[in-house]
Amino acid sequence: MPAAPTTLAALRSLLAARFPEKTRRLAGVIPTGVEAVDKALDGGLPVGRLTELVSTAPSSGGQTVLTHLLVSTRSARQRVALVDGADSFTPGTVQPDILRHLVWVRCRTPAETLAAADLLVRDGNYGVVALDLRGLAERALRRQPATVWYRLQRAAEGGAAAVLVLTPHPLVPAVPWRLILRTPLTIEQVRTPRKVLAARLAVEIDRGHAAAQEELAG
Questions:
Q1: 8 Å CB contact between 28 and 47
Q2: Hey, what's the torsion of the CAs at 211, 213, 216, 217, to 10 degrees?
Q3: Signed CA dihedral, 164, 169, 172, 174: sign only
Q4: CA dist 62 to 6, 22, 24, 164, 201, Å?
Q5: Residues 133-185: pLDDT tens digits?
């Protein structure tokens, strides 16, 4: 198993070769394609900020949001980087064309995942950087120092990417926007068409971070 620095060095070289020029800085929001999420965020994921989406149950809609985000950004021709902390993403669940704009980084540990996300956010070539921490051990996630998160927040500020952090429980310190999916989906709901399922998702806004949101907006 290669060490994290070697892995990140290889990723940095790949990015430099594939995207020799930085993309133009974006502004505003990036719609996810899920009405409840976009409504809660006044239109979509805020560019230059972190948004935490907490799925408190294994089947509470986090994967549905991620899939719709891939479809929405593909339609808008925006590049997306998915940093997959537990190597759990299944490409076969989406149409191949949806994956053409996606860079999928498969990781093994929280430290490696956060380091890769920091690199991709700073790279400047992505409309969205999605950091999926679901499936990683809670104890290992809790051991990550707060300074790592603050570094990622600073990297995102004023940058070209909207950063979506998918977590199994509230995790990101002082995040401006935290949305929570609490209701697990039934077997019948999981089998419903993706668009219908997305329309039924119930999103809760963590009111404890409303003050931080207002400060950033001001």
A1: yes
A2: -110
A3: positive
A4: 31, 30, 29, 11, 10
A5: 999 999 999 999 999 999 999 999 989 999 999 999 999 998 999 999 986 65
Q: How far is CA 128 from the centre of its chain?
A: 7
> Among residues 63, 83, 65, which one has the least CA distance to residue 73?
65
Query: Residue holding tokens 């993403």?
Result: 89
What 8-state DSSP symbol labels residue 21? S
Mean pLDDT value of segment 67-90: 95
166: alpha, beta or left, given left = phi > 0 and alpha = psi -120 to 50? beta
**Closest to 21 measured CA to CA, from 79, 102, 72, 73:** 79
Each residue's pLDDT tens digit, 10-54: 665 666 566 544 433 345 999 999 999 999 999 999 999 999 999
- Asked if 44 contacts 160 with a C-beta cutoff of 8 angstroms, the reply is no
- pTM metric for this prediction: 0.80
Q: Exposed, middle or buried by CB within 10 Å (0-12, 13-18, 19+), for 82?
A: buried
**Eight-state DSSP code of residue 134:** T
